[in-house]
Automatic annotation (TrEMBL):
<dbReference type="InterPro" id="IPR011009">
    <property type="entry name" value="Kinase-like_dom_sf"/>
</dbReference>
<protein>
    <submittedName>
        <fullName>Uncharacterized protein LOC101887754</fullName>
    </submittedName>
</protein>
<dbReference type="InterPro" id="IPR004119">
    <property type="entry name" value="EcKL"/>
</dbReference>
<dbReference type="Pfam" id="PF02958">
    <property type="entry name" value="EcKL"/>
</dbReference>
<dbReference type="InterPro" id="IPR015897">
    <property type="entry name" value="CHK_kinase-like"/>
</dbReference>
<feature type="domain" description="CHK kinase-like">
    <location>
        <begin position="17"/>
        <end position="214"/>
    </location>
</feature>
Length: 281
């Protein structure tokens, strides 16, 4: 993790990046292949709620703050101008669609996926576009398992006690439904996602409500309002499923040669995406 700090020399501020090795404090990454169990998810969602609370209070006092953080991963200008990005996303969806077509009883789903892919740019723009009257928070913007580190209880190497977020280059103000759907669909073990999803959302909400109340925030949203907002952003979860989960699931050996430069080669990208989905599905 690094911090951007201002140091003053002869009265003039100078921005400086200060790096710190978090492993010396006992923090480490979780396994991206295994995914996160309920305990690991609870730590992140509680931390995320506290991370959101302060910017919500600041934004209430200074609404103009969000003007400096409007461009997330699915920023409309970026999506419409980056042919490489949309082509790679299209490759993901086409590959997945063709695979689903071989599953008996899922032919209609395959057709819907192909239809989605036919208008992939429009779909991605709609996924990232702000929705009026949403509750704005400062989204991390890229909340997958390599972007947070855990510290574990002294008497256990498997029970997480704390976590820190790293790499905020994609952060933006928008609905918490963006981060939360992204996080749930790309990191969480299937059992926890299927059977403990509502509990996880309630855990997040309880921590957010408490933090906002302690800071005298006006108009704290209800649990139902928060659930509705997360549901309204389900497409963010779908986006993470087809775009990031297959990459995250790759072994270190299979992902070692992946880079932006390598993926510019269409045949290399095609073979990697086929491998991703064969391993994931």
């Amino acid at each position: 993790i690094f911090n951007l700090r201002c140091f003053y020399t002869t009265g003039e501020p100078m921005q400086t990046i200060v790096f710190d090795d978090l492993t010396q404090y006992g923090y480490r990454l979780a396994s991206r292949q295994k995914g996160l169990d309920e305990e690991h998810c609870v730590v992140i969602l509680r931390k995320l709620a506290k991370f959101y609370a302060t910017p919500m209070v600041l934004l209430e006092k200074s609404p103009s703050l969000k003007e400096n953080f409007k461009s997330g991963m699915l920023d409309e200008t970026y999506v419409r101008s980056s042919e490489r990005f949309t082509n790679f996303m299209s490759l993901h969806v086409r590959t997945f669609s063709d695979m689903v077509a071989t599953w008996k009883g899922y032919e209609e789903i395959s057709e819907k996926l192909h239809s989605y892919c036919d208008s992939i740019t429009k779909e991605l723009v709609e996924t990232g576009r702000p929705i009026p009257k949403e509750i704005n928070v400062f989204n991390h913007g890229d909340l997958w398992v390599n972007k947070f580190m855990y510290k574990y209880k002294a008497d256990s190497s498997n029970v997480p006690d704390d976590a820190v977020f790293v790499d905020f280059q994609n952060s933006f103000f928008d609905s918490s439904g963006c981060d939360i759907n992204f996080f749930l669909h790309i990191n969480v073990q299937l059992h926890a996602l299927k059977y403990r999803r509502e509990f996880l959302i309630e855990t997040y909400y309880e921590t957010l409500q408490k933090a906002l109340s302690e800071m005298n925030y006006g108009g704290i949203p209800s649990l139902q309002e928060m659930q509705d907002e997360i549901s309204s952003r389900d497409l963010y979860g779908f986006f993470s499923l087809y775009s990031f989960l297959p990459i995250v699931a790759l072994s270190k050996e299979d992902s070692a040669d992946i880079s932006l430069e390598a993926l510019a080669n269409k045949e290399f990208a095609r073979q990697k995406v086929i491998l991703m989905f064969n391993l994931t599905c």
